[in-house]
Write a structure and sequence with these properties.
Radius of gyration: 21 Å
Distance between the termini: 32 Å
Structural class: alpha/beta
Strand content: 15-25%
Bound molecules: flavin-adenine dinucleotide
GO molecular function: FAD binding; monooxygenase activity
CATH topology: FAD/NAD(P)-binding domain
Pfam family, one: FAD_binding_3
Keywords: Monooxygenase, Oxidoreductase
CATH architecture: 3-Layer(bba) Sandwich
Protein name: FAD-binding domain-containing protein
Order of helices and strands: EHEEHHEEHEHEEEEHEEEEHHHHEEHHHH
Length: 430
């Protein structure tokens, strides 16, 4: 039986950064991250890193932040097209075309930009001491007792932890067992994402930093350049549209038993990227912009990630609801705590959790009371962001390109949002 002070469940961005935060602020704690995948692979597509996410990384590890500053980039063009592929808005000529990185750097000391999802995960992983992340550990059961928490991982020795930080994503098995508050709610949207090597003859240049959105027909998709000659695409289709095209998706099974089975069998989540998922993406994209379809067709099926869009409502997080998101010696961070719409703030909010929780543990010690203080302090900000994104997120699925284009103008983060973040930001001592 392995014994640790803190068991972090899930080696996604939130789990890795919180482990780094705890190691930096409380070097005497014994910390392990238990990740169900057998290894990390290049997957996912791209993510916007905003001022709040980057300040959270910098608060925990200024040297690591420097690596992000060197790698994030801004798009030179961000065009919006209709589903015939015709450009409707050339965002290169508008202020919202970029994240005003240089200006933000002057104002806030960090440089926002775009980056591949797996590049973010890789940088966090490399910053941790080698034996912290334990791969092939899919949490199947978790029981709290008087002196700690017992964790079970099929095919692996059990783990005894004094406290647990669950960062196991929006289908968090830990949450299912500890909170018993059911899976997040399906938002009637299916998403596919992939990253692939740039290919000659598919219609976009290898050079330059370009991005293109395809809007209309109640469907929203993007294609853009990423690092090292790769291209990312995201296809996001509402139920009414994909069902019309014959795509079958059982959201409830996806949210509950299927995920639990995978976790219990220790199956690498990435192995669920199959030929079938790729076929479903192609079927769901039928009739959409040909420029996008060619890239989806050319993708390696193994690199395509498919998932439903599930969120937890902001009302659960409002102070009046007084529900909290932790219990006893277990707390939650990232998507496990507050699954929200993918409008660009989900990962950044997950990153915000990390220095906040490290600060509370540094100031108040490791205890259930500290976890409750962290959750109580964090809930109002998280509720406000989740509420804001509930509204903005649903506006992406319209027929009218201009309507969606106007909504894109509103996307985070604007100066008032930076100011609100500053009110809650905590300075940890390293
Ligand atoms: C493979 C993958 C690719 C993604 N790609 C994109 C993308 O391209 N663009 C984008 O905007 N967002 C993407 N996301 C979602 C986005 O990254 C999340 O919203 C954000 O990262 C929140 O971070 P998190 O660490 O809280 O959760 P996640 O990133 O979901 O990480 C959760 C981690 O927990 C692990 N886990 C789950 N169950 C168990 C268990 N039983 N035992 C142990 N470990 C477990 C998972 O394998 C995963 O590594 C992706 C998520 C995943 C998992």
């Amino acid at each position: 039986m392995t014994s640790v002070d803190v068991a972090v469940i899930g080696g996604g961005p939130a789990g890795l950064l919180v482990a780094l935060g705890l190691i930096k602020t409380n070097p005497s704690l014994r910390i392990k991250v238990f990740e169900r995948a057998q290894r990390y692979r290049e997957c996912g597509a791209g993510i916007s890193l905003h001022v709040n996410g980057l300040k959270s990384i910098k608060a925990i590890c200024p040297e690591l932040y420097k690596q992000f500053e060197a790698r994030t980039f801004e798009f030179e063009t961000f065009d919006e097209c209709n589903q015939a592929g015709e450009v409707v808005t050339e965002r290169s000529s508008l202020p919202a075309a970029n994240m005003q990185s240089e200006q933000r750097l002057q104002e806030y000391g960090v440089k926002p930009g775009f980056m591949g999802w797996s590049d973010i995960q890789k940088l966090f992983y490399q910053a941790l001491p080698q034996d912290v992340v334990q791969f092939g550990h899919a949490l199947a059961d978790i029981r709290e007792h008087a002196h700690g928490v017992t964790l079970s991982f099929p095919g692996q020795p059990g783990v005894e932890a004094s406290h647990v930080i669950a960062a196991d994503g929006y289908f968090s098995p830990t949450r299912e067992i500890i909170m018993q508050d059911g899976p997040p709610a399906f938002q009637n949207i299916l998403l596919w994402r992939a990253r692939m090597p740039w290919q000659e003859g598919l219609g976009f240049p290898r050079e330059g930093r370009w991005a293109r959105s395809f809007i209309g027909a109640k469907t929203y998709s993007n294609i853009y350049t990423l690092q090292n000659g790769t291209v990312g695409w995201v296809l996001s289709v509402p139920t009414a549209v994909y069902e019309q095209r014959g795509v079958q998706f059982d959201a409830l099974a996806f949210a509950t038993s299927k995920q639990r089975r995978e976790a219990a069998s220790g199956q690498d989540i990435l192995k669920s990227s199959t030929e079938e998922q790729h076929q479903r993406a192609l079927q769901a994209a039928e009739g959409l912009a040909p420029q996008l379809l060619t890239w989806i067709k050319a993708s390696d099926p193994d690199g395509v990630i498919e998932h439903g869009l599930f969120t937890r409502p902001s009302s659960l997080l409002e102070p009046a609801a007084d529900k909290g998101w932790g219990k006893g010696r277990v707390t939650f961070i990232g998507d496990a705590a507050h699954a929200t719409r993918p409008t660009g703030l989900g990962l950044n909010m997950a990153l915000e959790d990390c220095p906040e929780l490290a600060w509370f543990i540094q100031e108040q010690g490791l205890s259930a009371d500290t976890f409750r203080a962290f959750e109580k302090d964090r809930a109002p900000r998280v509720a406000q962001i989740v509420r804001q994104e509930e509204g903005r997120g649903s506006l992406a699925y319209k027929d009218d390109v201009k309507e969606v284009s106007n909504r894109n103008e509103l996307l985070p983060m604007k100066p008032d949002e930076f100011e609100r973040f500053k009110e809650t930001e905590r300075a940890i001592k390293i």
